[in-house]
Amino acid sequence: MKKYLAILLIALLWSCNSDDDSISPAEDPLVVAEFRTNLSELNLFTGNLADLNISSRAFEYNLNTPLFSDYAHKQRLIALPENTAMTYNGDGLPVFPENTVIAKTFFYNADERDLTLGRTIIETRILIKINGDWVTGDYKWNDNQTDAVLDLNGSTVPITWINADGISNSTNYEIPSNTDCFTCHSTFDNATPIGPKLRNLNFEINGSNQLDDLISNSNLTGISSSSEVSAVVNWEDTSATLEARARSYFDINCAHCHIPGGFCEDQSTLDLAFETSYEDSQIFERRNSISNRISIYNEGFSMPFIGTTLIHTQGRDLLQEYLDSL
After folding, report:
1. Which own/partner pairs from 188-193 qualify as long-range (CB within 8 Å, at least 24 positions apart)?
2. Structural contact between residues 291 and 320, judged by C-beta atoms closer than 8 angstroms
């Protein structure tokens, strides 16, 4: 009997310590596709929230030319419901499944020359597809950087950072209200994502094409290769043409308002979408107005209309060079 028990005990110990593939570590909790009081309740991140460690239930994505937001850094992620995928729908936005969560977190490094000095996380903007419509919400991070609280009213946060050249910068960073979010994310009065158009994702990161990775990971269906999608260029890539760089910058920074159905449709004839031909864009006809509005910061006059408090000098210089070449 004792010999039998000993054999049984050894078998149990071997089973507990084996590498059997049927035994897997605990999975991250499902992402919650609804607006809870605290960001931590959405399960988008694991561990210490301020570390921004993305849950295995979500994935990070990047844009070839990102939106300028007062020099803030951004972490972008998408959480798709289990066993679903985005569906190819042309070079623009894919079709997202119901209960998709898109999150964008804004932060500043204390000193760009030494990232070990930490960072300040300001806000996490959330889009959730609910009953076929996109709903917006914003989470403001607390001073202790332990969590963020849903705040639809907007606020101002003083921020100071040192850039890569060792120059100290500061601004009163404006967290948008929910109304402001809808202003930029509205097309024909329907809320819609801006950034994750397939043409914005079609580029290599660390030697691997981002779209091909989404396809191979079954996060994007209805398409077999990134070669089937057009691509914007990185506005900082001087090997690209001046026109392609400027039109890519216009597309991500301006076209969400300056397109048919956008917020500025009635105030301006501009159509700054990347796919719009130069002749139909009205860029030449409106070049002087564009130049005036990007050259100074004057609330209610300068462009972008909302979302920034600083002039993006590098972007302005690119656009001015392009306008001068027309």
Report:
1. 188/261, 189/261, 190/133, 190/134, 191/127, 191/133, 191/134, 191/135, 191/136, 192/93, 192/134, 193/93, 193/96, 193/102, 193/127, 193/134
2. yes
CB 215 within 8 A of CB 205: no
Residue ranges per structural domain of the chain:
22-231, 237-326
Q: Which residues pair with 109 in a beta bridge?
A: 119
Compute how many other C-beta atoms are within 10 angstroms of the C-beta atom of residue 285: 10
- Encode pLDDT of 224-251 as tens digits: 999 999 999 999 999 999 999 999 999 9
Question: CB–CB of 166/140 below 8 Å?
Answer: no
Do 161 and 150 form a contact (C-beta atoms < 8 A)? no
H/E run at residue 215: helix 210-216
Quick: pLDDT tens for 7-49: 333 333 333 443 443 334 468 999 999 999 999 999 999 999 9
- The whole-angstrom separation of Cα 155 and Cα 177 is 8
Q: What is the distance between the alpha carbons of residues 70 and 149, in angstroms, rounded to a whole number?
A: 22
Q: How many CB atoms lie within 10 A of CB 297?
A: 12
Instruction: Give counts: helices (H), strands (E), the chain.
Output: 8, 16
CB-based contacts of 321, cutoff 8 Å, min separation 6: 242, 246
